[in-house]
Specification:
Strand content: 5-15%
Distance between the termini: 52 Å
Largest sheet: 4 strands, parallel
Number of strands: 6
Order of helices and strands: HHHEEEHEHHEHEH
Mean pLDDT: 92
Low-confidence stretches: none
Bound molecules: zinc ion
Radius of gyration: 19 Å
Length: 205
């Protein structure tokens, strides 16, 4: 495989990018001056080396001071937030959208993806084990809000995590609610506006 094919393959793994678009990216880069390519490489490397995964919520954040002292993000270390509610979202972009709505002041857990229907090994796709540990070990949690897109894959993911948490929830007397029950079918959290999220949160059940 030459570098042209290899790059096409790498770009085709980007979200929403197919092989044709991936090829267009490669041609785009071929036409760019060397300075642009260097800038791109440097920034990708810098972004990666300064990004930390929060050990509480598993969200990725940029350590601007490069302190490496703490691997807890600003949301998890904010003492004014409620500790009794934890919201499970699929991706960092969903969390951003919920934060922008200003309607939620609890904790988060980022699953790191969704589970396709009929998938045989969901624990390999998302942080299912870590989620169970978090809910099991944290005695302050009184409510878990499952916040998935109201797409078939989002609903499948919600069902699987609810089933996996069943025993812990019963044992600890935790309430489970679904944000999606306040959203219309097919809604994607990443694109939902603040008003939609506020009303979905209010109507969660
Ligand atoms: Zn965090």
């Amino acid at each position: 495989m030459d570098s042209h094919d290899k790059l096409t393959e790498l770009f085709s793994h980007f979200p929403g990018i197919g092989p044709r678009q991936a090829k267009r990216f490669v041609y785009f880069l071929m036409n760019k001056p060397t300075s642009y390519i260097k800038d791109l490489i440097q920034n990708i490397e810098f972004m990666k080396s300064s990004t930390i995964e929060c050990k509480n919520c598993h969200r990725f954040f940029i350590d601007r001071n490069k302190s490496n002292r703490s691997s807890i993000c600003t949301i998890c270390s904010d003492e004014s937030r409620e500790n009794s509610v934890i919201m499970i979202v699929a991706r960092d972009s969903d969390l951003e959208s919920i934060e922008k709505s200003n309607a939620y002041k609890g904790q988060y857990f980022i699953l790191g993806g969704t589970i396709p229907i009929l998938d045989k090994e969901p624990e390999k796709r998302v942080r299912l084990k870590q989620l169970l540990n978090t809910v099991n070990e944290n005695n302050e949690i009184k409510e878990v809000i499952i916040s998935m897109n109201t797409t078939p894959e989002g609903e499948n993911t919600g069902n699987i995590i609810e089933e996996a948490m069943k025993d812990i929830i019963v044992k600890k007397g935790i309430k489970i609610t679904h944000l999606g029950r306040g959203l219309s079918t097919g809604a994607e959290l990443e694109y939902a506006d603040g008003e939609t999220i506020r009303s979905a949160l209010k109507n969660r059940s």
